Amino acid sequence: MTDPMTVAIATAMAGKAVEVAGEPVRAAVAELSRRVRERLRGSPSGDEALERATGDPTPERVATLASAIEHLMADDPGFGAEARNLWNQAQTNAAATGDGVVNVLNGQAGRVVQFRDVHGDVNIG
């Protein structure tokens, strides 16, 4: 299963707009896209996936590029850890403005509850 980070990177690399929460995450996606593009150079399957996705960014081609990115990170665990660290730092630094809300969850959770401006009683049980 493709994770949100690699999908965001692949989508950005394919030249499509990426909707992410806040400037820190946008900056991280741009930086990760640059680093991944450098790493994919010289890899026949990576170069082909990138060329196809940028030429015609269909969902299938973007998914293929995301898969190539996942393989790249699996083949180089140090680079994968570095990329995930940058992604997680950017998400942690995301900030809400105005009436916005930022909810950052890393890992797995059985239940997640987010509240804002609760007036009255709340019972969770």
Percent of residues in helices comes to 55-70%
Question: Could you give the count of β-strands?
Answer: 0
What's the average pLDDT?
81
The ordered string of helix (H) and strand (E) elements is HHHHH
Q: Please give the domain count.
A: 1
Largest pleated sheet:
none
**Uncertain regions spanning at least 5 consecutive residues:** none
Q: What's the overall geometry?
A: elongated
Strand content: under 5%
What value does the Rg take, in angstroms?
Answer: 17 Å
User: How far is it from the N-terminal to the C-terminal residue, by CA?
Assistant: 32 Å
Structural class: mainly alpha
Number of helices: 5
Can you offer a commentary on this structure?
- This protein has 5 helices and no strands.
- The longest helix is centred in the N-terminal third of the chain and has 18 residues, at 23-40.
- By secondary structure, the protein is mostly helical.
- Helix 4 crosses helix 5.
- The two termini are 32 Å apart.
- The mean pLDDT is 81.
- The protein has one domain (4-93).
Summarize the structure in short.
This protein is mainly alpha-helical and 125 residues long. The protein has helices at residues 4-13, 23-40, 44-55, 59-75, 77-93.
